[in-house]
Amino acid sequence: MDWTEMSAAALGRGIGAGEIDPVTLAEHFLARIEAHEMTPHIYARLTPDRALAEAKAARDRAKSGRRLSPLDGVPVSWKDLFDTAGVATEAGSKLLEGRVPDRDAKVLRTATAAGLVCLGKTHMSELAFSGLGLNPVTASTPCVNDHDAVSGGSSSGAAGSVAFGLCAAAVGSDTGGSVRIPAGWNDLVGLKTTAGRLSLEGVVPLCEKFDTVGPLCRTVEDAALMLAALEGRTAPDLRGAGSLAGRRLAVLKTIVEDDLRDAPRAAYDSALDRLRAAGAELVPVEAPEIEGPMADAGVLFTTEAWAIWGEEIEKRGEVMFKPIRERFAGGAVFGGAAYIRAWRRMEAARAQWAARMAGFDAVLAPTAPNLPPKVDKLMEQGEYYVTENLLTLRNTRVGNLMGLCAVTLPTGVPSCGIMLMGAANAEDRLLRLAVAAEAALS
């Protein structure tokens, strides 16, 4: 079989059965990366010495029956905002050019302790502050379905590394949709974890109250195994989770279905039909409580982002991509009172949402209301960049504002995903549901 088409879980099983040598596997991916025409647009830098050393250790463990996890020996990529000891971590920005941490991020240390093999660091939107993945400062990763279009951001290279077969799985981050958008646009599974579940130690911040770590993968099983590796625990048991019969799913109507482009709407409607045919009860639900926090999103996100990065941007902002710099600067106009009022309104809305959705197994929405925009148009038309970026992140932002976990699944229509949102810290339950939904959609 072609290893680049196999899931991370399948590769792990092959290693465990003695059918795949982890060193040969790492060498295979490194050689493919070296030869692939898209590599400069996907990987910011490689870590071949580390990868081969980790693969050799995984091979020794496999031979002696001491594997550390189901993914021990499986090669993955890391978004370039996770600190890597002795290797530059620049978060896609000239502001951090030459920044070399002396210690791995905590989630990277944990994943390494589970045997994952680090292939390298992937490109991203500058300082993670865009859902499009356009980054003329470093590199823009193309969408696997349209090489003239962006891949989605901010975990753009993470998605590209999996979609183009340059790793088995990837680790990204999601503050307003930065795992789910690139996963959705590249026909992958993307898991947004609950804020605070996975450590942000050694992760370059954007908005620490919203920043989350999550995997981009080929399958739900991979996402479950990656989550377990990132937090150092046993993966949730997905066996027997293949039926949607009796599941109640809320079909969110407020905001997320507004202005859907034709292809995402058709894909979403078709996906709903398949979930219904598989036995799920789909209930349309209005949730007007999200309207306030959605309107306050500019205050909530940009105020914190400016507080973290404003001083550095004021000193050297000329090295940044102008639309990113201007988005950060938007946070400078809000005072502390406006920020606190917005947080209070959001916390009240979260309580209303939790009460409204308590009787449902998950809440459904289109992952993105649009398709990946063309790079040329984004570069040429400044206002188009702004409006398309805000539209791109609109639906995914619901999960961040309501403090949820969420997963995006491919619908079978290129670059059109469907999102399932679950309660805070209910990732295991959500993943079991997602396995059943994945089967119904495939």
From TrEMBL:
Segment forming the signal sequence: none
PROSITE patterns linked: AMIDASES (PS00571)
Organism superkingdom: Bacteria
SUPFAM superfamilies hit by this protein: Amidase signature (AS) enzymes (SSF75304)
Annotated InterPro entries: Amidase, Amidase_CS, Amidase_dom, AS_sf
Gene Ontology MF terms in the entry: catalytic activity
Domain Amidase as annotated: residue spans: 26-431
A Pfam family the protein falls into: Amidase
Protein name: Amidase
Organism: Thetidibacter halocola
